[in-house]
């Protein structure tokens, strides 16, 4: 119905024009609305694109995997890049340079071990009943209203509760989490305005103040370390190794943010992709109807669909690494200190890796997409994100098979985190 408005088409000439002068620091609006034709040109013409600031933009699947694999050469530590970006004494600098995702071992390893202990297969399976209940409550409310906003009333309402439960943040305190998260992650965009900068810094400060109180309270009354990540991070591991106060608070902020916008975008992008691809939607609905009495088949069908949404419209489109020594990627020499941007969105459409990459194929097998990254930093929450995507999208679709957008949706307009801000819809 709103085909052109969801993902506008881009002419081949325009895609070539953008690719020829491609610069992450000067992205045109039509690229942000639909970057894929430009990625397709870059795959063919300049898969390792040197940008005006000297960094390299990588679009080939094989090159991304090679960089992810070699964490000894390609560092995730961002002190060098973020000092000029944020100012070395700013709250954003301290936050982003202390979180595990922007660190190398040993800090990365210590924090990751503690987090992973609370994200075991069993712990995640135990979250499913509560998640189903939450999703059904949201669907009941939408049903009573005859529709609503896909993002505000549904997609964004789920991760805030799930990630809030993971750290056992009291329900009444969860209100500001989404805005803090949007502001702090928004400051990772290639270009940040002074207003976004100020908002990001203020959000880190406010979140730190909030978490200090929560941590003091949790120290007084610890939770169950098998499930409560905050208690785990406070208590440290069996060897007695504990995080410093700054490491603890900053990694709590990161966790609350990491599981937030990304998962909102998975759910929103998935439901909007179905709106835009009626054939895929009908196919998925037919399978769900046919498999009604078979939970295992249903789970398998929805898992394949969720992975295809992640490949097709990756919520996190970009990653970054810095070469610690002279090296080579895809036949191109890089000097020590070279900055590389890993374009996940492009690698996930690489024709050398995926058959018919521009087709949304919800039954795609062997879908080894990079939406969760790869290697030592691969997303710690991927099983949780898949569970949220499967339950949210599956139950929404089964409950409202005929949902329709009421007006063109509003995109987030970001290069790194791809998603929508608003998408009004009706259910019949
Ligand atoms: C669809 C949803 C999600 C997507 C697309 C996503 C994507 C990613 C990606 C691409 C990375 C790797 C970054 C890099 O290598 O530079 C990452 C790391 C991470 N993600 Fe996610 N994520 C999602 C949901 C979640 C959730 C729900 C959680 C919370 C439990 C989470 C926690 C983390 C953590 C802790 C890391 C850092 C891992 C490390 O550095 O070792 N993510 N995520």
TrEMBL record:
Domain of life: Bacteria
Family to which the UniProt record says this protein belongs: Belongs to the cytochrome P450 family.
Lineage: Bacteria, Pseudomonadati, Pseudomonadota, Betaproteobacteria, Burkholderiales
UniProt name for this protein: Cytochrome P450
Pfam families: p450
Keywords: Heme, Iron, Metal-binding, Monooxygenase, Oxidoreductase
SUPFAM superfamilies referenced in this protein's UniProt entry, alphabetically: Cytochrome P450 (SSF48264)
CDD domains the record matches: CYP164-like
């Amino acid at each position: 119905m709103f085909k052109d408005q969801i993902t506008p088409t881009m002419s081949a000439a325009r895609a070539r024009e953008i690719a020829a002068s491609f610069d992450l620091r000067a992205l045109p609006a039509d690229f942000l609305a639909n970057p894929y034709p430009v990625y397709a040109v870059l795959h063919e013409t300049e898969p390792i694109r040197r940008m005006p600031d000297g960094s390299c933009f990588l679009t080939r699947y094989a090159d991304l995997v090679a960089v992810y694999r070699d964490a000894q050469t390609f560092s995730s530590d961002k002190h060098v890049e973020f000092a000029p970006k944020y100012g070395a004494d700013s709250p954003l600098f301290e936050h982003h340079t202390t979180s595990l995702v922007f660190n190398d071992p040993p800090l990365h390893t210590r924090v990751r071990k503690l987090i992973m202990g609370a994200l075991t297969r069993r712990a995640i399976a135990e979250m499913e009943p509560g998640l189903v209940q939450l999703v059904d409550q949201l669907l009941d409310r939408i049903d009573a209203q005859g529709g609503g906003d896909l993002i505000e009333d549904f997609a964004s309402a789920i991760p805030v509760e799930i990630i809030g439960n993971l750290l056992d943040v009291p329900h009444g305190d969860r209100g500001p989490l989404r805005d803090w998260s949007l502001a702090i992650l928004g400051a990772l965009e290639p270009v940040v305005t002074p207003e976004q900068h100020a908002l990001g810094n203020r959000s880190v400060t406010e979140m730190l103040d909030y978490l200090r109180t929560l941590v003091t309270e949790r120290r007084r009354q610890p939770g169950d370390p098998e499930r409560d990540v905050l208690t785990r991070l406070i208590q440290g591991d069996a060897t007695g190794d504990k995080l410093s106060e700054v490491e603890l608070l900053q990694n709590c902020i990161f966790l609350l943010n990491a599981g937030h916008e990304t998962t909102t975008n998975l759910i929103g992008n998935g439901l909007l992709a179905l709106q835009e691809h009626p054939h895929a939607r009908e196919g998925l609905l037919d399978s769900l109807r046919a498999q009604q009495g078979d939970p295992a088949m249903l789970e398998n069908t929805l898992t394949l669909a969720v992975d295809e949404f992640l490949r097709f419209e990756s919520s996190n489109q970009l990653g970054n690494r810095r070469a610690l020594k002279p090296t080579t990627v895809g036949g191109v020499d890089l000097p020590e200190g070279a900055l590389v941007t890993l374009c996940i969105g492009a690698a996930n459409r690489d024709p050398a890796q995926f058959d018919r990459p521009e087709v949304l194929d919800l039954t795609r097998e062997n879908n080894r997409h990079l939406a969760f990254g790869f290697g030592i930093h691969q997303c710690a929450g991927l099983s949780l994100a898949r569970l949220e995507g499967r339950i949210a999208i599956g139950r929404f679709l089964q409950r409202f098979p005929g949902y329709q957008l009421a007006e063109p949706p509003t995109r987030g307009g970001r290069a790194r985190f791809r998603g929508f801000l608003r998408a009004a819809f009706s259910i019949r």
